Amino acid sequence: MPRPTKFRRVEFLPKYNYFIPLGKKKCELEEVVLKIEELEAIRLKDIEELKQEECAEKMHVSRQTFQNIIDDARKKVAIALTQGKAIKIAGGNYTTNFCKFKCVNCGKVYEINCEHDKASCPKCGSKNVMCGKKAEFCSKRCKGKNNW
Q1: Is 110 found in the same domain as 70?
Q2: 34 neighbors 69 (Cβ within 8 angstroms)
Q3: Statement to judge: residues 43 and 90 lie in one domain
Q4: DSSP secondary structure string for all residues of 114-143
Q5: DSSP string spanning 47-116?
Q6: Strand ranges of the sheet holding 31-34, from the earlier edge strand across to the other edge
Q7: In whole angstroms, what is the distance from residue 107 CA to residue 24 CA?
Q8: What is the largest distance, in Å, between two alpha-carbon atoms of the chain?
Q9: What is the pTM for the complete model shown?
Q10: Are 55 and 85 part of one and the same domain?
């Protein structure tokens, strides 16, 4: 029995998740599915130009696992570009550092990066906010499921 896949940490979620070759008929269109963590691997290595070890650390995986992820990602992109296939960015085994918070004063629900942002309401500035994952007042990184 294989080991369960660990969640890979990603810091970037794409605004656009579907790319199609221009001039190809929809009925002829085939697609390649690029996982979120595969896109993150490409972003870290090819855009941020980090070393493989740094990329692996950021994604919380081993160097070998990172290499496997980026190899799969690059192959999928190469197939899409050379064979005129659409690229759909979806799915995978990933987690983010974003947590949902709710302001007790004004009721606004918002997401922040728990490791970098302050837990104060962007609407009214109140620090009286409830973390959606712990269902208690907090301003630190959270774990668990959303309780409200």
Answers
A1: no
A2: no
A3: yes
A4: TTTS--S-TTT--S-EEETTTTEE--S---
A5: IS---HHHHHHHHTS-HHHHHHHHHHHHHHHHHHHHHT-EEEE---SEE-SEEEEEETTT--EEEEETTT
A6: 18-19, 86-89, 31-34
A7: 47
A8: 54
A9: 0.69
A10: yes
Report the CATH number at residue 122. 2.20.28
Please indicate, yes or no, if residue 146 is contained in any of the structural domains: no
CA torsion through residues 37, 43, 46, 51, sign: negative
Q: By residue range, what is the domain housing residue 23?
A: 8-94
Answer yes or no: is 36 within a domain. Answer: yes
- pLDDT, one tens digit per residue, over 40-69 is 999 999 999 999 999 999 999 999 999 999
Looking at the fold, whether 88 and 115 belong to one and the same domain comes out as: no
Q: Are 81 and 75 in contact (CB under 8 A)?
A: no
Q: Tens digit of pLDDT for each residue in 99-148?
A: 777 888 888 887 776 655 556 787 888 888 777 654 444 444 444 434 44
118 and 80, same domain (yes or no): no
How many domains does one find in the chain? 2
Whether 14 and 78 share a structural domain: yes
Report d(CA 72, CA 41) in Å as an integer: 10
At residue 14, the 3 state secondary structure works out as coil
**Count of all residues that appear for the chain in the document:** 148
